[in-house]
């Protein structure tokens, strides 16, 4: 039987408990005192029925709060937990003392040697693990962790030797032995493969605590495995290329290439040769060069910022998509195309079509499956989790421990409008961590341009009454919001007013579908 006694910190309280045990001739085999205010007693040769009459006496001791039975002493629990962890490890593990003798080993060792743990215990580890001088390592003045290629049961293993360091007094330490972990070449290969294996779900890396981002990722999962073009809308820095890459990885084309062309960064002639490639002899080149259409065969081609593609190149791209083939520059031989197109844009393609700046046919050809990446200011719930994720990433690159965000910094990040979106947040945190001396990132460590409006809503020299200016502001606000919330119920919910109140205000200001362009 074992007892757990919860008590206050009083000098002599343990002796008072022991006095009761001595008076009743209780055979105490173990006692442990926990720093949290608990005394543990072990009576292996007594049953609860023979002891329960003493429980009230112990409870009456001054400073005792509670007395109850417990299945384990703390040391027993730790020992059992350690043994359970050790036995579940698939690799051979030894625990040795300062002389190299085996104190403990797991089932991977006993199964490999076909011997019992009791037989192996006390043997010199060097008898079984060859190729490393354990005694010289244990006898060195400053024992450091070591790795070495060794042999165990006539097979090659990588051995990690880790010294067991025990505190000795306030500042000193002593070596109490070591743990030896063995990994076979096969196990190392399995771990290396698992480390470099792609995530099973390419969308898991997205933070989606906000409703709008959760909806976007949910839609992306649905369209990823379809073969039709995807058109991704979103402001600069929202992660359009990131979700495009995730769609590729989640598609049947994930073993093919994912290649990208930024339509805004290249002159028209260069972009054309990048896409189509050129034949031998073209541009006075003795050898031809394949373009992205060929290199991405069986995979995905991302056309970044498609709105900046010239109208001439738009026409050529349209023909490629319509006929499913292309020709290299300087060559008349057609080449079949096997590419999935994903395009991104931060501009309103529909408006560009109306203005004659983007081909209508290409727009409808590309706009089959559409995704909208929300801006960061629409993802308020994601800002802090994103920030913490970036801190961990950047800290690893900078070789430092991840810093914490102060309360003022969290509030600042959540209220900043983020015109540069997720990319701006990532860069701001990288700069802060690079220059940080302490362990906490404060508001002052985040250097961001001011986004306060340069003018106020109302001119300080306005003519008229306060009521007139308030009505003017109210009318302008309703006109701006009405295209996004064209029903009175939606607008009322957005502004926290009743449906009737909003309907009356819209009627008063003459705001309706006929007067406001939706």
From TrEMBL:
Cellular localization per UniProt: Cytoplasm
Keyword annotations of the record: Activator, Aromatic hydrocarbons catabolism, ATP-binding, Cytoplasm, DNA-binding, Nucleotide-binding, Repressor, Transcription, Transcription regulation
Coiled coil residues, start to end: none
Location of the Sigma-54 factor interaction domain: 206-434
Domain of life: Bacteria
A Pfam match: PAS
Keyword tRNA processing: no
SUPFAM superfamilies hit by this protein: ACT-like, Homeodomain-like, P-loop containing nucleoside triphosphate hydrolases, PYP-like sensor domain (PAS domain)
ACT domain location: 2-72
Domain PAS residues, every copy: 78-123
Transmembrane regions listed in the UniProt entry: none
PROSITE patterns in alphabetical order: ACT, PAS, SIGMA54_INTERACT_1, SIGMA54_INTERACT_2, SIGMA54_INTERACT_3, SIGMA54_INTERACT_4
NCBIfam families per UniProt: HTH_TypR, PRK10820.1
Protein name in the entry: HTH-type transcriptional regulatory protein TyrR
Organism: Salinimonas profundi
